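in:
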């Protein structure tokens, strides 16, 4: 139907152009897309989205939509396609970047548990572990690791799922770190809803632990973050909070470390501020993105 309407619209335009009279698209009978959408009882936008799905989505998704499966919708599947396209575009841009890491940066494509880092050398661990309930063991590994690699007075700042705050504090204190303060990182992106607890979530907790006594500068405990895109990494954080904490909790040339580096967000903050940076990331795709992004800080 679309092909036919496009042909008819073309003929209308050609016939009209011979007359040399200005005319609106409405007078020409409307856009082919809108004509077809009306005929099949959809809005032009829904028609456009459905068309994209027909052209790009796998058969099983199309079947779900045709069967009116309530777990999905045209709008949802359209958003998925747009997201995947953005990711591919961003990934291609990143691939073009040269790898030329600054001297002060050491990155490991490995689980942090397997990486050797000199004891008592790190001033600040700032990190964003996985925080599903099943991943809580990672905080214990992190605690053991942090106690060894942090210098006396060094800090560990880690994001934490709201539900797991008390467990994480118990784990960290059990390994010898002192719980200093909970920070609130106010979301820059859309808020989410936890229906089971009836909460509209507006901030992410970040817990501050210290090895010994912190002697650095005073810091704020509420940071208004900014959404900086998550095309490359679903859980990418913003440099707003890491810029701030690295600035006030460390001095130039001290070591900042992120054992769950992802695409290297906190490494970017560290390098911008002339700190040494160590990062670990187990996933090779994220690791490669981090290498390229940290090599090309403008
Ligand atoms: C929540 S994401 C971090 C996102 C990061 N803050 C950013 O802005 O891109 C956690 C990352 O830790 C990585 N990871 C999980 N277990 C790990 C481990 N044992 N050692 C190193 N990296 C790990 C995951 O692959 C994931 O990329």
């Amino acid at each position: 139907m679309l092909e036919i309407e496009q042909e008819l619209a073309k003929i209308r335009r050609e016939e009209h152009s011979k007359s040399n009279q200005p005319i609106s698209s409405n007078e020409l009978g409307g856009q082919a897309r809108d004509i077809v959408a009306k005929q099949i009882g959809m809005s032009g936008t829904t028609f456009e989205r459905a068309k994209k799905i027909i052209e790009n989505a796998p058969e099983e998704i199309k079947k779900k939509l045709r069967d009116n499966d309530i777990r999905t919708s045209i709008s949802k599947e359209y958003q998925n396609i747009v997201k995947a396209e953005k990711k591919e575009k961003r990934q291609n841009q990143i691939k073009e970047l040269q790898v030329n890491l600054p001297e002060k940066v050491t990155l490991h494509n490995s689980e942090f548990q397997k990486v050797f880092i000199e004891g008592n050398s790190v001033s600040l661990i700032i990190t964003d572990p996985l925080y599903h309930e099943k991943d809580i063991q990672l905080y214990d590994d992190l605690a053991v690791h942090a106690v060894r690699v942090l210098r006396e007075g060094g800090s560990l700042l880690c994001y934490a799922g709201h539900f797991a705050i008390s467990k994480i504090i118990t784990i960290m204190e059990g390994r010898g770190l002192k719980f200093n303060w909970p920070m609130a990182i106010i979301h820059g992106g859309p808020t989410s809803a936890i229906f089971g607890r009836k909460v509209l979530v507006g901030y992410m907790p970040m817990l501050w632990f210290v090895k010994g006594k912190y002697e650095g500068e005073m810091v704020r405990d509420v940071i208004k973050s900014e959404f900086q895109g998550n095309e490359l990494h679903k859980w990418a954080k913003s440099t707003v909070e890491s810029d701030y904490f690295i600035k006030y909790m460390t001095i130039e040339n001290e070591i900042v470390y992120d054992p769950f580096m992802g695409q290297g967000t906190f490494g970017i903050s560290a390098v911008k501020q002339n700190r040494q940076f160590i990062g670990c990331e187990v996933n090779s795709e994220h690791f490669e993105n981090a290498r390229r992004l940290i090599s090309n800080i403008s």
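note: The chain is about 40% helix and 20% strand.
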